[in-house]
Amino acid sequence: MKQEQYSWNIHEQNIKKEQENFKPSAPKIKITDNLDLRNTMEQALEQIPHSLLAKWALEVASPCLVHLDDHLTDDPRINLGIQTLQQRIDGKIRAFDLRKVGFVVNELAKESTTDISRWAARSFAQAIATGHMRGHALVSSDYAVKVINALTDNSIESATDERQRHLNIIRDWSNRL
Q1: Total structural domains in the chain?
Q2: What is the DSSP string of 104-131?
Q3: What does the alpha-carbon distance between residue 19 and residue 35 come to, in Å, rounded to a whole number?
Q4: Distance between CA atoms of residues 23 and 39, nearest Å
Q5: Can you give the pTM of this predicted structure?
Q6: For 50-107, what is each residue's pLDDT tens digit?
Q7: CA 41 from chain center: how many Å?
Q8: What is the CATH number of the domain that holds 33?
Q9: Which residue range(s) make up the domain with 90?
């Protein structure tokens, strides 16, 4: 895959050029997780182009939206985020434009009154931010696991099922390449 396909971000392209071997990252948030599956998923994400990664992140985060607080469920910023990410994927807008919308979408988390809604909104906002930098995709996935943790009293089995769902999406998208 060409560097421009791997990432739209020059900084991430340079990091990839310098990287000799894959090294999994640690989660940036505290979650109960199946780290083996997370590492497998992260390695699989390295193999797909940025455009597919952005679609993957949105598909991972979208089910979390049902857990937004009632006053946020039909918020127009959700559609704005989805439409803007699609425009970025289609090459119709710059990263700068997407980032501006990303800040607007991130307000959903700030306006949440429950932790589950806040984490669901963060998962979604990170998915939108994937249109700027690849690294946001994994954080989006981690927040989706955080939502599952909260819903299932930190069940490792449920976290494993959620990670498997994320991995299955990657496999499905990869088969379309």
Answers
A1: 1
A2: HHHHHHHT-SSHHHHHHHHHHHHHHHTT
A3: 21
A4: 9
A5: 0.95
A6: 999 999 999 999 999 999 999 999 999 999 999 999 999 999 999 999 999 999 999 9
A7: 12
A8: 1.20.1590
A9: 3-175
